[in-house]
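WARN retry 2 of 3 for item q-0093 after timeout on previous attempt; input resubmitted unchanged.
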Amino acid sequence: MKYNLLILLIFALFSCNNNNNDQIKPNIIIIYADDLGYGDVSSYGVGTLETPNIDKIANNGVRFTNGYASSATCSPSRYALMTGIYPFRNKKAKILTGANLIIDTLEMTIPKMLKTKGYETGIVGKWHLGLGDSKINYNEKITPGPNEVGFDHSFIMADTQDRVPTVYIENGYVVNLDPNDPIEVNFGDNDYGLPSGKKNPELLSMMWHHGHNSAIVNGVPRIGYMKGGEKAKWSDIDMADKFLDEAKKYINKVKDKPFFLFYTLQQPHVPRTPHPRFEGSSGMGPRGDVIKEADWCIGELYDHLEENNLLENTIIIISSDNGPVLNDGYFDDAVEKLGDHTPAGKLRGGKYSLFEAGTRVPFITYWKGKTKPQVSDEIVSQIDFLNSFSSLLGSDIKSRDGIDLSDVFFNNKGNGRNDLVIEAIKRTALRSGNWAMIPPYDGAEKNTNVNIELGNSKEYKLFNLENDLSQKNNLAKSNPEKLKEMIEIYSKIIGNESIEIKELILE
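OK item q-0093 returned
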């Protein structure tokens, strides 16, 4: 009897340990959209576009109403997410075009931390954090890159689909490259004598509006020039399917171990080239169509996890690298066919902006059986992922600027941030509690090319977001004491790395 009881106790202990191990080593998938606005996800209840697959995850997880990217542009946000460090602290963390890797290979990153806990790590999709450490040679192994900052597997495009080279790169090598047709890339003059969007409009399937008038690939004018690599060039309309397929392949390969997948969508960044299956699906032109396409991809990935019995032990996070933009370089009816849809919801600004719509983005966490359906008003940031995952897994690795929000993200309890610095093109601002403060900056108040207010002004801006979500009422002059408090908090976080701002004089 005693022997049987002992066996039962050992079995129970073993089972408990196994359950604990399962709980502390969930698979982690971050789905990262590109230029997706706060109002572009229908579960947020402010736009008119329908995103049923994202909504399914949001309605069964935690939907954050105060979730932030670190920057109003892509490369800095990706840097902050990966490292847990504010992008203003890294001078290289800015919008990149053919640039070298901006993450030091000695820096701690999410995939590096997860590897210390036995995780397989992979990235599929847009990278845009730079490659190499000198002039990039696309005809040999490209290093350093994603694999050197913690990813076991990478299948990426180098920058964005509006830039050359228009090729996929797998673990440092250009996919399908013919060695007899080497790639050359130039972001200056058209030294190759190639047709261009500027000089050859008759060759275009999509007309450029600003900036995108260099090399033509698949009828689309791009930024920069690319010679060679014909067999390696991607098909724009098949890109979403390709990245989805590669994400599934990666999961199938590593599903017997705990894994991390950074699934970085290209939608709805320009050029917007939906697969013909999705053309006209939104009624809002290509921008709406590629959001519908992205939503479908997310649904397909969710179904793949479910079919492989992985869903219950997989954390899914959905967010965006910055806020929305309509015309971002091409004439594609994004403005003309918008209708009643509001990509930013009630928020002011958008991509490139220090106003709320620049960095407040869709932000959803889901862990089946763990997180309870909830709408949370807690302030959270992508910069906190590293510390939160680390705490969840029992690691003592911490980043400089992130905090542990694992309970907020996954356990439906605890408090979010009180203070958060946001950035837009190396300009910074502060969110603290219900207040937002934007220091004075020189420069245009609006980017007229994209029709977005940037937040620049000769004066401080102070807003109470609790009763002025659209940031219409500047309280800086009427509430000088609160402004002083905000500046003190801001200065403490920024330190000596602050962009110089005007001294506040209380009268």
